[in-house]
Every structure is written in C-alpha cells, then in structure tokens.
Amino acid sequence: MSGARKDCRVIGVISIKGGVGKTTVVSNLGAVLAGQFGKKVLLVDGNMTAPNLGLHLGVLDSDKTLHDVIYDHAPINDAVLTSSYGFDVLPSALAPRKSQQKRINPYKLHNRLLRIRGDYDFIVIDSSPNLNDEMLSAMIASDELVVVTSPDYPTLSCTMHAIKVAKERKTPIKGLVLNKVRNRSFELSVKDIEAATGVPVLSVIDDDVKVLEALSKTTPASLAAPKKDFSVAYCSLAAKLAGEEYRDPRFMSRVASIFRR
To answer: Is residue 179 part of a domain?
Structure first.
C-alpha cells in the first residue's frame, strides 16, 4: 500500500445530464496534465452502470476492472492499465457479471484509491451522470469537484442541482467547465452562468467536429489537434488545476511572425 503524496489530488468530474461531454473533458484533461505538464495521472471510470471512458480511449478488453475492485474480486493495482497516451486508466466493465451488479458501497472507491494515491499527482474520476450511489461514491472519493455544463437553460438547471448536491456533501467545488460552446447569441454567457450558480467558470471549450473525429479514433482530441482552440482551452484548464503557468503558443508564434516581418 502506497503512502499518499502530499500533493496528490483527486478530482471528481460530475454533471447531472448526459451529453454535455463529461467523459471527453476527463480524457483530455488527463492527456494534457500528463503530456503538457508532466504529471503522473490516473483516470478512473466511476460510471459503473454505463461506462464510457474505456470507449473514448480504446480500452475495451480488460481482465480486471473497477467492478472487480469494488466487489473485492481483485486488488486495485491489478485493474490499473497504462494507456498509450502517457497516463493510467482504471476502467469499468462494459458487460459486468451478475455478481457485479449489486448495489455498491459508496465509500469503497475512496478506500480503494487510498491504496494507490501515493503513486499519482492527480486522480481524475469520471462520475455517473445520475444521482445514484456511483455519483455519491465519486463525491466521497474526491478532494474537489469540477462540474461540466453547457450554455443552455436545461443543462444549467441540472448543473445548479449538481452544485446543490455537492454542497450538501461538503465536497469543495473548484469550478465549472463550460463545454460545447458555439459562440451564438442565444447561448447563455459565462456571466449568466456564474451569476446563476455562484461558481466560477474555469474554462470555456468550443464545440468542434474535430472532437468527434478524434473520438472515432479513440484518441483525446487535445492530442489529435493540439493547435485548435479547444486544445488550448484544455491546456489552460489543466494549468489552473495544477497551479502551473501556461501561455497560448499560437499567440507567441503570431507575435514572432510580426517581428520577423
């Protein structure tokens, strides 16, 4: 059993609405924290009922999964895989056995992660999008939460509910990620969303077909298209979470080209 690093942080990524891109945020955040900032990262698929993280990363055939860990069929180290993208993954079973479909103890994830916290700088949990024991499990296991939302009223309503639940659990909320932004006049603004939720927006991530293209190749979009606006936004988000400095490299290259001319 590893001792916990003093700087190891467990971040739960939550939403109470499917389709906002929560798992996409998790996979790209892991890729940038590991690749851009050199952090040791573990991504955990805490959505045990309908897992998606493995599908995003091409991790489809795991001998051991989080289901085995939670139901005491395997130690956690046996279920952790090293991805080709520079971070580790703890997937959930795409087709859990009948013995792995019982109600979970929401404190078990926290207890199991304690055994490997010392191996990582960041552990990022992809939560269930439903108000169930899986989301509660992610909240209990996390040091802080990031809430993913999009700029529309139905999602805002769900986001406000998620924040209310998190505050009741007394898990600190680091901030919001405003995802799938199309920069249209009918969308809610950052100011609107912050005023309604009382929580700061950490990052605004544009909607882009390149994200779907990367998903079809089971590759984090920030690695597939590192110069796109959404990739720079992920780097900025990771920098804020890691307490690192980040400057948009495209801006510096534009300035340099001006001076060359």
So the answer is: yes
Tell me 238's DSSP state: H
Which of 4, 12, 18, 2 lies closest to 180, judged by CA?
Answer: 18
Nearest to 197 by CA among 236, 138, 151: 151
pLDDT digits (tens, 9 = 90+) for 88-136: 999 999 877 766 667 889 999 999 999 999 999 999 999 999 889 999 9
CATH label of the domain that carries residue 138: 3.40.50.300
- Classify residue 1: in a domain, yes or no: no
| 64-83 exposure pattern, b = at least 16 Cβ within 10 A, e = fewer | bbbbbbbbeebebeebbbeb
229, part of any domain: yes
Does 223 fall in a domain? yes
- How big is the CA angle at 128 (ends 125 and 131), to the nearest 5 degrees? 125
Q: Which domain holds residue 120?
A: 9-260
Alpha-carbon span 81 to 79, nearest angstrom: 6
